[in-house]
Amino acid sequence: MEDNKDFIFRDKRRGANPDGGEEKSSSAPPDKSGTGAKTGSMPRMEITFSTFLLSLSTSAAMHMGGFTDPATGVAVPQNLELAKQSIDILGLLKDKTKGNLDADEEKMMDSALYELRMRYVEELKKKGA
């Protein structure tokens, strides 16, 4: 096995110093939210069922096209197969969570599925499928 001196692995998790002590804090100050994120970085969102639904819904919508990647400024190419996969996952979640969602989560799920399914059908019609 070769020793590659150009590659350095640093575990930045709190308390992950191999000597057993705490890592020293970085030179960048934490943001005012107290999350420990560097200044200028996006704050971390709390992961809830609603944010999970939002993530899947956004993924499906982006795969249907008409969006620009904010990081690159390049248009996201349409991929209806991936859009359908995300919509099907949402449908599966709806079936598997039936009776376990609160009213707001259920409304969000129903609304997202309705909107995404309607848009998907419109995109298929545009393609002539």
Features:
single chain, 129 residues, mainly alpha, 44% helix
Major beta-sheet overview: none
Q: How many strand units?
A: 0
Element-level helix/strand string: HHH
CA-CA gap between termini: 54 Å
- Helix/strand/pairing class, anyone? mainly alpha
Shape estimate: flat
The radius of gyration is 21 Å
Structure overview:
With 129 residues, the chain is mainly α. The chain has a domain at 49-127. It has three helices and no strands. It has helices spanning 49-63, 80-96, 103-127. Helix 1 (49-63) runs antiparallel to helix 2 (80-96), helix 1 packs parallel to helix 3 and helix 2 (80-96) runs antiparallel to helix 3. The longest helix has 25 residues, at 103-127.
SSE layout and pairings?
Blueprint: H1 49-63, H2 80-96, H3 103-127
Helix pairs in contact: 1-2, 1-3, 2-3
Produce a short descriptive summary.
With 129 residues, this protein is mainly α. The protein contains three helices and no strands.
